[in-house]
Amino acid sequence: MAKVKAIRGMNDILPSSTPIWQYLERQVSTVLSSYGYNEIRMPIVEQTELFKRSIGEVTDIVEKEMYTFNDRNDESLTLRPEGTAGCVRAGEEHGLLFNQTQRFWYQGPMFRYEKPQKGRYRQFHQIGVETFGMASAEIDAELIVLSARLWKKLGILDAVTLQLNSLGSTESRQVYKADLTAFLEARFDQLDEDSQRRLATNPLRILDSKDTNTQNLLADAPVLSDYLDEDSKSHFAHLTELLDASGIRYEVNPRLVRGLDYYCKTVFEWVTDKLGAQGTVCAGGRYDGLVKQLGGKPTPAVGFAMGVERLILLLETLNAIPEEERSSFDLYLAADDKAAQQAVFALAETLRDELPSLRIRCHFAGLKNINNKARQSGAALIVLIKQTEQGPVASLWNEDALVQSDIALSALPEMINSAWQ
Length: 421
Ligand code: HAM
Description:
Elements: H1 18-34, E1 38-39, E2 45-47, H2 48-55, H3 60-65, E3 67-70, E4 76-79, H4 84-93, E5 102-111, E6 123-132, H5 137-154, E7 161-166, H6 170-185, H7 193-201, H8 212-218, H9 230-245, E8 251-252, E9 264-271, E10 280-286, H10 290-293, E11 301-307, H11 308-317, E12 331-335, H12 338-354, E13 360-362, H13 370-376, E14 381-388, E15 391-398, E16 402-408, H14 412-420
Parallel strand pairs: 1-5, 7-8, 12-13, 12-14
Antiparallel strand pairs: 2-4, 3-4, 5-6, 6-11, 7-9, 9-10, 10-11, 14-15, 15-16
Helix pairs in contact: 1-5, 5-9
This protein binds histidyl-adenosine monophosphate (HAM).
Histidyl-adenosine monophosphate (HAM) binds next to strand 6, strand 10, strand 11 and helix 11.
């Protein structure tokens, strides 16, 4: 019978990779807690309505990428394609947003029916950050500075660049949208097929088109920054001032519009040229209108989400993962004859009592080639027990050589401890 396989674009994260995931997650949570952010955990499934009303009916995500199904009660549900909508829903439902300031973060799988390729999957993972109740540009800057700190900690800062833009207010964007549409309608025949379709539904997304002809055409198109309202202009100026003062480099990209409808004012993306087409590793912006749009009181908000798979690909490409983070244990404990094997079990427990941070893996399989197996385990330390007439004794190796042989088991914890330093 044919074997059942995983769904295309939905990957197993195997034990050989999980140490790297955990390393990344640890770095992120350390940075986020140093800025006073709290973790929130939302359900993976929400009412379909939530995503339609927030991300926007005529976005790619809602039009063609959502995993939507009716449950047994005939209610339309959707596997979350992103975390912002659910976070706003949860915050509002539990009264955490109105008249308060909040800094939340979340992590977990998101689902989009996209064409799988390197860096693009149907189940992928985001670590997202959402803040509420702060209207001024300081919090936009904090999010960017915080992410830059994380890149630095991960050793990837030099491989990413920050693209920045302001989308202005909904009103100023409407005026721009009308002018852009008029400009493009007059050149409809020269547009690529996708852009022709978008012209009627979401003309701003045409600015994102990868088609060279369309891009050339856009060179003479009206520019969004010329349409910004005064408030958005000064917000953006203050943000760039703060970034300049923090030594954060950025490129203002007037064509950066993002694929979700809820943004206003600041939008940004951290991009890399090291991963091919899927180069955006982190993206976000301000969404002051969303809480109200979902039924709450007007509440300013800004956030971002990073793509965990893409960050890991980048870490791998740059060889930026510390060697010790790749292994899942430090010490391999084995016996080289049957008589000594019983000592292994008890000794491992004693060592775990005395050296609780040491990660110990016991060898419980056959004894053939035990020396080689221990070496190939990748452990930084190896302990081999053998039976003598005086009872079991141990020998200790580090990665390079024998540290000592014939160690009494009672002396082993101290010896391991000093070899481990
Ligand atoms: P997004 O740009 O749709 O924004 O996704 C954020 C990041 O998730 C992307 O930059 C990318 O790294 C990763 N990502 C997206 N789709 C995929 C995929 N199919 N495979 C792998 N990685 C992917 C949002 O989701 C917004 N909720 C971000 C936000 C939070 N804005 C404000 N707060």
